[in-house]
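Appendix C: a fully annotated inverse folding record. The material below is reproduced so that readers can follow the format used throughout the book. The structure is listed first as tokens, followed by the designed sequence.
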């Protein structure tokens, strides 16, 4: 082999060896992140808490018909604002002059049956009243005869057996009379109930469904051509006359920062402008509700916020709610940006033996900038910039100047 080839081979081997050395050096040297530390501190917290809320009407209820009728025209839909007296649903057969027979057989058969029931009760009452007059006449005669027989008995004009027969007959006739009077009273009550019900039904059948007050339609269950079921809601109605309020779901861990009477700012973001409203917390539920997001479950209390003025707000609108939080004294807190949230749990990183270690923390109150820490002591150092490190990774702690 020539000297020139030997030199070339040695040069190539040298380059390969140098590359391998560099590679091994890089492989054995970990990439080390620089972190800053902050301490868990004991502080007094008094920060505003921000949530999402929903505007609700204080008074909501269903509207229905008391009788069966065929729907001809549903004139509203969810979200429709209506004024008191405005027509919501028109029914077949209703006209300016009253109610017309439209040939809906079942409805009219039942109506005619009820009319017949009233007529029968009226006749029964008339017969009882006639009977009462007859029995009263018979009672008066029986009493007069019994009185005479008593007087004759005292004068020994008749035997006691004969006198007692007339006295007993008068007593039985008196009982019969009182039974007839009671029957008349019951018949009048039955007639009144049936007659009033029929009158109310006929009156109801002469009317379309009207708005009882100013409000907004939140749900509609009626359709054209449908036969109404007495008492079953045709729509849901939210009153605007009774005022509005805001319902807010507050996570359990933040609920101790909210108190009754707390001042509230409500922000409504419309398409054109942002409007602000004032209010206060009037109630906080004592029973929590649970809501699931994927595998995680969060528990909430419901707070009700009364509004000083609700002009421009509508039921169902989403609003931002900022509640003035209660001042909490002497609690251990960590900055919010030092906390990592994963799968519904909260973690911080600490440094042990020059390596980052992820530690789960139990939290209490949360504000926009602070988390209350329940399971770590005051003064414990945590990583300020946790998103730069991984669990078990080697780190360098930046010295504070």
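Designed amino acids, in order:
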């Amino acid at each position: 082999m020539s000297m020139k080839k030997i030199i070339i081979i040695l040069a190539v081997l040298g380059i390969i060896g140098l590359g391998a050395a560099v590679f091994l050096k890089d492989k054995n040297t970990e990439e080390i992140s620089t972190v800053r530390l902050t301490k868990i501190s004991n502080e007094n917290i008094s920060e505003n808490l921000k949530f999402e809320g929903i505007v609700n009407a204080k008074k909501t209820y269903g509207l229905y018909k008391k009788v069966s009728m065929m729907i001809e025209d549903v004139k509203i839909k969810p979200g429709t604002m209506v004024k008191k007296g405005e027509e919501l649903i028109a029914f077949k057969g209703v006209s300016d002059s009253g109610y017309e027979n439209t040939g809906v057989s079942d409805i009219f058969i039942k109506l005619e049956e009820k009319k017949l029931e009233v007529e029968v009760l009226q006749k029964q009452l008339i017969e009882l009243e006639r009977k009462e007059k007859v029995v009263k006449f018979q009672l008066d005669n029986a009493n007069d005869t019994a009185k005479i027989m008593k007087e004759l008995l005292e004068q020994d004009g008749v035997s006691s057996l004969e006198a007692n027969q007339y006295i007993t007959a008068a007593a039985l006739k008196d009982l019969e009379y009182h039974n007839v009077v009671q029957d008349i009273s019951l018949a009048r009550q039955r007639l009144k109930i049936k007659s009033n019900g029929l009158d109310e039904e006929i009156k109801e059948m002469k009317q379309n469904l009207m708005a009882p007050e100013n409000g907004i339609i939140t749900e509609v269950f009626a359709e054209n051509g449908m036969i109404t079921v007495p008492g079953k809601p045709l729509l849901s109605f939210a009153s605007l006359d009774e005022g509005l309020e805001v319902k807010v779901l507050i996570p359990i861990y933040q609920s101790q920062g909210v108190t009754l009477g707390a001042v509230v700012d409500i922000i409504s973001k419309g398409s054109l402008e942002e409007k602000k409203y004032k209010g206060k917390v009037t109630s906080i539920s004592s029973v929590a509700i649970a809501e699931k997001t994927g595998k995680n479950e969060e528990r909430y209390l419901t707070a009700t916020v009364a509004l000083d003025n609700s002009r421009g707000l509508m039921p169902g609108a989403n609003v931002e709610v900022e509640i003035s939080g209660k001042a909490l004294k002497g609690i251990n807190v960590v900055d919010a940006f030092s906390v990592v949230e994963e799968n519904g749990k909260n973690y911080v990183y600490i440094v042990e033996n020059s390596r980052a270690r992820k530690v789960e923390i139990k939290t209490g109150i949360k504000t926009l900038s602070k988390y209350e820490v329940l399971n770590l002591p005051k003064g414990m150092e945590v990583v300020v910039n946790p998103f730069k490190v991984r669990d078990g990774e080697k780190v360098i702690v930046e010295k504070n100047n």
